[in-house]
Design a protein that fits this description.
The complex is a heterotetramer, with two copies of chain A and two copies of chain B.
Chain A: E1 5-6, H1 8-13, E2 20-23, H2 33-41, E3 47-50, E4 53-54, H3 56-63, E5 67-72, E6 74-75, H4 84-91, E7 96-99, H5 102-113, E8 118-121, H6 128-131, E9 137-141, E10 148-153, E11 159-167, E12 173-174, H7 185-191, E13 195-202, H8 205-209, E14 215-217, E15 222-227, H9 245-255, H10 258-270, H11 275-282, H12 285-291
Parallel strand pairs in A: 1-15, 2-3, 2-11, 3-5, 4-6, 5-7, 11-13, 13-15
Antiparallel strand pairs in A: 8-10, 9-10, 11-12, 12-14
Chain B: H1 9-19, E1 26-29, H2 35-54, E2 61-64, E3 67-70, H3 81-85, E4 89-92, H4 96-104, E5 110-113, E6 117-119, E7 124-125, E8 128-130, E9 135-138, H5 145-151, E10 154-158, E11 166-167, H6 184-187, E12 197-199, E13 203-207, E14 214-219, H7 225-230, E15 243-244, H8 250-260
Parallel strand pairs in B: 1-2, 1-5, 5-10, 6-11, 10-12, 14-15
Antiparallel strand pairs in B: 2-3, 3-4, 6-7, 8-9, 12-13, 13-14
Helix pairs in contact in B: 1-2, 2-8
Chain lengths: 294, 269, 294, 269
């Protein structure tokens, strides 16, 4: 096994402007927010994002003008409402969107994860998504039953970025037994071309090797692993900390108005030197302790 | 089974929805969002599921978050992440793909959906108002609503009756109901299905057996036909006899208030 | 949730002669041997078996003449050698076989588990399996890349029978964290039409509900769950007991010769009243305690 | 790096196989079976992998059972179930399907395969001898051997050199090598690949760059060209110069005997 441990800034430097990047997690849960803030700080722009449900990371990229196109099943902020930056960008014609329902987007990631270029599905029959996207959705016929299907194109991206729980220096990432499994991080990891994982904590390999069935990202798939405690803040990391409702509400207040979001970005993204500096500005020790569920 | 006299509009919706749930069935309930949308998409369905369990359908279970058959006797006090992570349930499958597989295999009997646009043939739009590529209002996308309408036997739509919501034709078909009516859904390649009921704040609708047009079934107590027609951009099919929506019983109202949602977490708006 | 708990004999009675039945587990690990012995005792015959790697259960069915057709990736008995009964049946023209490599058989079970009638794969290009099986393997073209693929037919069966670790009376089946995951029981369960699961032990539902992520077969998929301790004997159940090498060697000795296998079947299958009676004949308390790894 | 004088035939094969393994690569090793087949398919590959790790390829790892990168410093004393269940490893993915996905995505660099029939163009047969539908001898099926030959960059075949094994044309193509030679593999739709080396008890073979015929590369010490040709049903391509297989070094033999397989679990037959 080779050592894949990196610093956040070095890992973000792997991703050039114009990249297509799959972002893992779900909306405001276990999604690599710290990594995306670092990408923005480094001036990366013109991104094409594949998500499952997209959330705060996509909205941030939209808010700073770094988002060109999104393919996902949802864009919003869960109980905190619409993704205002994203919405504005789409309505202004600045961000292109291709919509897919869950079954279709999963079929696309499964195809990529299985090394095949398409996957059949019936879920898009009759829909507007199929009508408006002949590039990625095409009619085919089952050679056994003669039934009508769509082929959906494999969801291949240049980079895949996930936030995980714990991992070792080689890139083996494990989940705890008690977790929220309502995402497709595992499928996205398996589908990745170049995979970057941020984790709450790096642990010794011996701890990983004791329970190999808990490893959902094996080292072979990983190009870089980065230790980023609270890497999903202001979102949650199930089993580690809850979403920071105060910060999320403040984020939404700012996101409603482009000028105010500029201020938000100036303070919390551009105005910090690194992730530790961000945490120092965004939370107090008391707040972290309230959010913790460990 | 005396009917209640004192009940809220939401309590009426809970009782009406609960009546559509059958013993042993599996229902799909969404997660997330806030305000009235939350009450329609999450709060009323969960309350209805629990009410069904406590009355005529003890073995009715739901899928919620990624949880199969979460224990509805122990609805969390707040729906922040950790309460979902630790909610006791029969199963939490390995990823969301497994749920989609259960949908495509038609293992769900009912589901609850809400939308800012629904049309005469029960097609839903939660993606974009106006032109898709340059929309007047960009909405949330698709989630699994497309999948529900494609694969669930009896989808239940819960939406307030408004002129801008009930439109002749949705701007964008996120989810196929009866498409262009008659057998057009089947011709498109989908299995039989389509919305079973549309439960609104004023009336309950079904769909005409042949034409597949939305058809008024019952008016809520105190609501007139004129109220309903004025709240829609198209004229629904009208049956010979228009009934009244059955009000909740006293016992149903007691269960909702005292046992299911004593802290008003579900029926918030 | 509905109660699905049954007796072994009642569960076996669900399966009529002539059925197509998916048998889970892997060769001699966690495969429902007790259930198959019960099927044989009840005189069920003319079976069409889908397996992943088929093993002792398929060989037993072949040995008593109850097997019509097999579709699987392997037929043998792992470190104990060839599946002699099966082999003889095929060579005599009495058992029909359709061979699939692992990627193709998994694609078939995945298709069935995803409610689609076929799945694309490249693994069969140029092979004898494709040449000899145009009914289940047909050429198709990717509508995006123009590449050549095969469509393989969904692996749909009338019944699916698995042996698991623990479950509750409603049919929720869980695996332990430390296990051997080299099989596709989960995919086969998800693909099932009518699913019967035998488990080492029935536990209270409260124990299941405590760790819902360990449930790999949810109650909604299950028609019957049966408590059958040592239900995989003489095979192993990972985390519970090892394979019984002595019994397996004796089995193989008998299986080499039809007359001797008749004796074996008379003693261990037909000659016992039920699973407890089998255990009484096949193992001693001392032997069970040696095999145990708990 | 003095060569050993005292080494067993299997030790030669271990050293020869180990030389083909490169640092940082992932190799596929099968499980199961018994006797000589076990030694060829499992024992020699594991010993070679560990030998490579201890010498020139410290980051070479294997997939074995469903284990990714099992700790080869701790090879179990016996390969019964519980020893596999509890063997420390970096990962054990959720089911065998994940391994197949890694294969199809070409994440394996090398693999080890054995077969009762291999032909001039490196096609393998482990399914049936004679007529497929009514075979003279039914074999084990396919396992993932088809997948290895379709998707792994450099498959290594380990088989004893026998006339009945090395045949002009396999009775049944379980696994596609170079099909009918030249570019026929690519024309069939497969990606470049095919057997990299065929390591036998008498000689090592590769494949001709153009014709894709099996080509003799080196004779094991003490083996003559006549021995080899008499042990095959077809005449392999012969290069200008036929080398001698490099014997194991004294250090390699010491490592195999004392550290890798002191209890002769791997090199049993």
């Amino acid at each position: 096994m080779q050592r894949k441990l990196m610093q956040l800034s070095d890992a973000a430097r792997l991703v050039p402007s114009g990249s297509c990047i799959t972002i893992g997690g779900s909306i405001i849960r276990r999604t690599p927010v710290a990594f995306v803030r670092e990408l923005i700080r480094q001036g990366v722009t013109d991104l094409h994002v594949l998500g499952f449900p997209a959330g705060i990371t996509t909205d941030m990229l939209a808010g700073v003008g770094a988002l060109r196109r999104v393919e996902a099943v949802y864009e919003g902020l869960f109980q905190f409402g619409m993704a205002h930056n994203f919405r504005r960008g789409v309505e202004a014609g600045e961000i292109e969107v291709r919509d897919f329902p869950e079954t279709a987007m999963i079929a696309r990631f499964r195809a990529a994860s299985q090394g095949i270029s398409f996957m059949p599905t019936k879920v898009l029959l009759g829909t507007g998504m199929a009508k408006h996207n002949p590039e990625q959705i095409r009619e085919i016929t089952c050679p056994f039953t003669g039934e009508k299907y769509h082929a959906v194109q494999a969801a291949t991206s240049d980079f895949t970025v996930l936030h995980g729980y714990v991992g070792d220096e080689f890139g083996n990432v494990q989940w705890p037994v008690q977790r929220d499994s309502d995402d497709i991080d595992f499928i996205q990891a398996k589908a990745a071309q170049r995979l970057i994982v941020t984790v709450e904590r790096i642990v010794p390999h011996a701890e990983i090797a004791r329970q190999p069935t808990l490893t959902y990202v094996p080292h072979q798939w990983v190009e870089a692993i980065v230790e980023v405690p609270y890497g999903a803040h202001p979102g949650s990391c199930d089993g580690y900390y809850d979403e920071d409702e105060e910060h999320m509400q403040y984020y939404q207040e700012c996101a409603k108005d482009p000028a105010r979001f500029k201020e938000y970005a100036a303070t919390y993204i551009y105005g910090v030197t690194d992730h530790w500096d961000y945490l120092q500005k965004a939370v107090t020790v008391k707040r972290l302790s309230q959010l913790s569920v460990r | 089974m005396a009917y209640a006299e004192d009940y809220s509009p939401n309590e009426l919706l809970v009782a009406t929805a609960a009546r559509e749930l059958r013993d042993g069935e599996l229902g799909f309930v969404g997660v997330g969002t806030a305000g009235r949308a939350f009450t329609l998409a999450v709060g009323i369905p969960i309350a209805a599921a629990r009410l069904a369990q406590m009355t005529h359908a003890p073995n009715f279970t739901i899928y919620w978050g990624n949880l199969l058959s979460p224990d509805l006797q122990r609805i969390p006090p707040k729906l922040t992440q950790h309460h979902i992570t630790t909610w006791p349930a029969a199963a939490q499958l390995s990823n969301t793909g497994d749920k989609c597989d259960m949908l495509a295999r038609r293992q769900f009997d009912v589901c609850f959906d809400s939308a800012p646009q629904i049309d005469r043939f029960g097609n839903l739009n939660i993606t974009a108002i106006g032109e898709y590529r340059r929309p007047k209002a960009r909405l949330i996308g698709c989630l699994a609503q497309t999948d529900h309408l494609a694969f669930v036997s009896r989808p239940i739509v819960l939406t307030d009756l408004r002129k801008r919501t009930f439109v002749e034709r949705v701007d964008f078909i996120t989810s196929v109901g009866y498409l262009d009516g008659k057998d057009s859904r089947i011709k498109a390649g989908l299995a039989p299905g389509g919305p079973w009921k549309v439960i609104t704040d004023k009336a309950v609708f079904g769909f005409h057996a042949e034409t597949k047009e939305m058809q008024l079934e019952s008016l809520h107590p105190g609501v007139t036909l004129e109220d309903v027609l004025e709240s829609m951009s198209f004229r629904p099919a009208l049956p010979q006899h228009i009934g009244q929506t059955e009000p909740p019983t006293q016992e149903q109202v007691r269960l909702i208030r005292q046992e299911i949602d004593p802290n008003r977490i579900l029926l918030v708006a």
